[in-house]
Design goal:
With 188 residues, this protein is α+β, with helices and mostly antiparallel strands. It has one domain (4-185): Gcn5-related N-acetyltransferase (GNAT) (Aminopeptidase, 3-Layer(aba) Sandwich), CATH 3.40.630. Helix content is 33%, strand content 35%. The chain is built from 6 helices and 8 strands; from the N terminus they run E-E-H-H-H-E-E-E-H-E-H-E-E-H. An 8-stranded mixed sheet has the order 1-2-3-4-5-6-8-7, with helices on both faces. Helix 1 crosses helix 3. The chain is globular and about 40 Å long. The chain starts with a strand and ends with a helix.
Length: 188
């Protein structure tokens, strides 16, 4: 199994390893990180270890979820993860991302998601990538829009999570729209 899958100037996106369980448990136990996510903090080490083992068994080339470990190259430490759910038709996917609180605000999530999108659209030739986030999660919504995703709608009070109904913001990115956004972003 290939460990390193994608690289950026500051990050390595790779398969999860057993030693990632402790840092995964740490950042997923942070109430600020868990607030808009499906899990509840704290995340015990044994649950994180089981998750890491499951993540490591996945394949980014098969339908279903695959979780990339996001490692800060200079420090060799796990700072987050990016999940991709490849559709059965292999032409579309859903994406999600999580970053440790102390690593937020440095552009790491944008860099990681941009690398995954490049792989999905350029190497694999996907037609569409979708994402959704809690409507209160303005930072995630801005990240998606910065990368060219169009806001496609809101499902009002559609998700029961942590004792309350929440709205879901829906986003989509088509291959030609991504090319246009990347050209604009790079000054082309």
């Amino acid at each position: 199994m290939r460990d390193v899958m994608l690289e950026t100037p500051r990050l390595v996106l790779r398969r999860f390893r057993p030693e990632d369980a402790a840092p995964l448990a740490a950042y997923r136990s942070d109430p600020l990180v868990a607030r808009y996510q499906s899990w509840t903090a704290p995340v015990p080490y044994d649950a994180a270890l089981r998750a890491v083992q499951g993540f490591a068994e996945g394949s980014p080339d098969r339908p279903g979820w695959f979780q990339y470990a996001v490692e800060l190259a200079a420090e060799g430490c796990l700072v987050g993860d990016v999940g991709v759910c490849l559709h059965e038709n292999l032409m579309q996917a859903e994406i999600g991302f999580t970053l440790a609180t102390e690593r937020q605000g440095h552009g790491y999530a944008t860099e990681a998601v941009r690398a995954v999108l490049a792989d999905l659209f350029e190497r694999r030739g996907l037609h569409r990538v979708s994402a959704e986030c809690d409507a209160r999660n303005a930072r995630s919504a801005r990240l998606l829009q910065r990368l060219g995703f169009a806001r496609e709608g809101v499902r009002r009070r559609a998700t029961w999570i942590k004792g309350e109904w929440t709205d879901d913001m829906l986003f989509g990115l088509l291959a030609p729209d991504r090319r246009a956004a990347e050209g604009t972003d790079r000054g082309v």
